[in-house]
Design brief:
The complex is a heterodimer of chains A (about 130) and B (about 375).
Chain A: E1 9-10, E2 15-19, E3 25-29, H1 31-37, E4 40-44, E5 51-52, E6 57-63, E7 67-71, E8 76-81, H2 84-87, H3 91-94, E9 103-107, E10 117-118, H4 119-130
Antiparallel strand pairs in A: 1-2, 1-10, 2-3, 3-9, 4-6, 5-8, 6-7, 8-9
Chain B: H1 8-13, E1 17-21, E2 24-29, H2 33-42, E3 45-48, E4 53-58, H3 62-69, E5 83-89, E6 95-105, E7 108-113, H4 118-129, E8 135-138, E9 142-148, H5 152-157, H6 162-169, E10 176-180, E11 186-190, E12 199-205, H7 206-218, E13 222-223, H8 226-235, H9 271-280, E14 284-291, E15 302-305, E16 308-318, E17 323-331, E18 338-342, E19 345-352, E20 357-358, E21 361-362
Parallel strand pairs in B: 3-13
Antiparallel strand pairs in B: 1-2, 3-9, 4-7, 4-8, 5-6, 6-7, 9-12, 10-11, 11-12, 14-17, 14-19, 15-16, 15-18, 16-17, 18-19, 20-21
Helix pairs in contact in B: 2-8
The chains are: A alpha+beta (about 130), B alpha+beta (about 375).
């Protein structure tokens, strides 16, 4: 299991959020989540321009085994999606915290970020889940 | 309380992801499930299938008993070691389980049945066996390892006692024989499988199973989990009990007509119901579907046809084809353009003849 980057915030349902320098929020799923799902074979991306709400389904990832909803950690407008995933969904397996990001949001309420878990809290959650 | 096979610690030491499968703690994948799938299609992989139930039947009237118990005809088994795939039906013609029966001699046959159906199978078999004075003996002391892939047989044969090699090399498909494995361990080697590839399923006494597994690994056979086993058998067009058929489905509706022998004068359980449905017309058909677009077909999705709604039975991404395929049960008659409801979207799919993959290659028209 790779190290969890300290600048990430998490939902309990294993999505991460990273605030970029320009204030936009990048979203993906954790390394733990990709390893639980196994080989990813399809990602249903949100539409650019879509309004999404924190805590609701914004994308779907499908592994060989199962389909899984991806909840957005933050509300706002989708400004970019990771098109690479359309052809190479396995990028999430290979680099969940980097090249495997899923979508980028212009947040409408930055205070929502304060409700997310920080990297340490998330790590603790995963450890408890494993036992 | 979940059961563990004798190889449980071996799987865990390999870092396998373990899941509950029919009450057994089994490896679903060790690393990448897709790589495990490809290893079987291209070289050789091995599966711990020790959770499956081995049942020996003994008694002078065993053949007569099996002529009654099974929808396929054991009269096809004439040579010692020959195997047959069959359904075991209830009186309504529904499938209690699918199994493989091996012939030793007329007073000794062996059944290998599914793990998840073990208790009901044994209860049913014992109940039916009484009238024939047949002894039903479960063999929990056996483990089972399936070694599958284009190079699987050669890798197994290399581990056998020299005196056995030529004989096992010549073993025909759906035949089995005893042989000596590493350090003289006694093996029952069957040229059967559940992947669409050539290979062996090997029954081995539990105390030798770890040594056999390790010898196979050393010979370059890749451990593969139940996840890969599922995508391999789906590509190969093989049914999974509980998903593709069950006690409310007749073999006609599960593409299992080829396993039913309506031979004259044989009164097997379920025969009357099968003949009645055949005469009245089979209401549903099991078909193969391919999704050429992106997305994955999954168990339970709704299938829309010109004749009405059906549903996806087994469905998955197929690693050999790099797209999703499925079995579906749909109303009989011309289905017209078929669509599948994936999360509220109606996605067009293609009706195909399956198997989807045989001997490592996509079949024509897939």
């Amino acid at each position: 299991m790779s190290e969890i980057p300290g600048d990430l915030k998490f939902l309990k349902s294993h999505e991460w959020a990273r605030v970029e320098d320009d204030g936009l929020v990048r979203v993906g799923i954790s390394d733990h989540a990709q390893s639980q799902l196994g080989d990813l074979v399809y990602v249903e991306l949100p539409e650019v321009g879509a309004d999404i709400k924190a805590g609701t389904g914004a994308a779907v990832v499908e592994s060989v085994k199962a389909a899984s909803d991806i909840y957005s950690p933050i509300s706002g407008e989708v400004v970019e999606v990771n098109e690479i995933l359309s052809d190479k969904p396995e990028t999430i397996n290979e680099d969940a915290y980097g090249d495997g990001w899923i979508f980028l949001v212009r947040p409408s309420d930055r205070a929502e970020l304060d409700e997310l878990l920080d990297a340490n809290e998330y790590e603790e959650l995963v450890e408890n889940e494993d036992h | 309380m979940t059961d563990k096979t004798v190889l449980n610690a071996t799987h865990r030491a390999l870092g396998a992801r373990m899941v509950d499968f029919g009450g057994w703690d089994m490896p679903i994948n060790y690393g990448s499930q897709i790589e495990e799938h490809h290893a079987v299609r291209r070289d050789a992989g091995m599966f711990d299938v020790s959770h499956m139930t081995v049942i020996d039947l003994h008694g002078a009237r065993t053949r007569e008993f099996l002529r009654h118990l099974l929808a396929n005809s054991v009269d096809k088994l004439k040579v010692a070691g020959k195997a047959l795939y069959s359904c075991m039906l209830n009186e309504r013609g529904g499938v209690i389980d699918d199994l493989i029966v091996y012939y030793f001699d007329d007073s000794h046959f062996r059944l290998v049945v599914n793990a998840a159906t073990r208790a009901k199978d044994i209860a049913w078999i014992e109940r039916q066996a009484r009238a024939f004075d047949v002894e039903v003996k479960e063999r929990p002391e056996f483990a089972m390892i399936a070694v599958q892939g284009p190079n699987a047989r050669a890798k197994v044969i290399g581990l056998l006692h020299e005196a056995d090699r030529l004989r096992i090399e010549k073993l025909g498909k759906f035949s089995a024989a005893a042989a000596q494995g590493p350090r003289g361990m006694p093996l029952f080697v069957a040229r059967t499988g559940y992947t669409g590839e050539d290979g062996f399923e090997i029954i081995v006494p539990e105390e030798h199973a770890i040594a056999l597994w390790e010898a196979l690994a050393k010979a370059g056979v890749v451990p593969a989990g139940l996840g890969a086993r599922d995508t391999l058998r789906l590509e190969a067009g093989m049914n999974l009990y509980g998903q593709d058929m069950d006690e409310d489905v007749l073999p006609w509706e599960a593409n299992l007509a080829w396993t039913v022998a309506l031979d004259e004068g044989r009164d097997f359980i379920g025969r009357a119901a099968l003949e009645a449905q055949k005469a009245a017309g089979v209401p549903r058909a099991m078909v193969g579907l391919v999704l050429d677009d992106k997305g994955v077909l999954r168990h339970g999705q709704k299938v829309l046809t010109a004749q009405g709604e059906g549903e996806i039975l087994s469905g998955s991404f197929a690693p050999t084809l790099n797209k999703a395929v499925a079995f579906a049960r749909i109303p009989a008659g011309d289905p017209g353009d078929i669509r599948v409801d994936i999360r509220g979207r109606e996605v067009p799919v293609r009706l195909v003849k399956y198997p989807f993959v045989r001997d490592g290659k996509p079949c024509e028209g897939i």
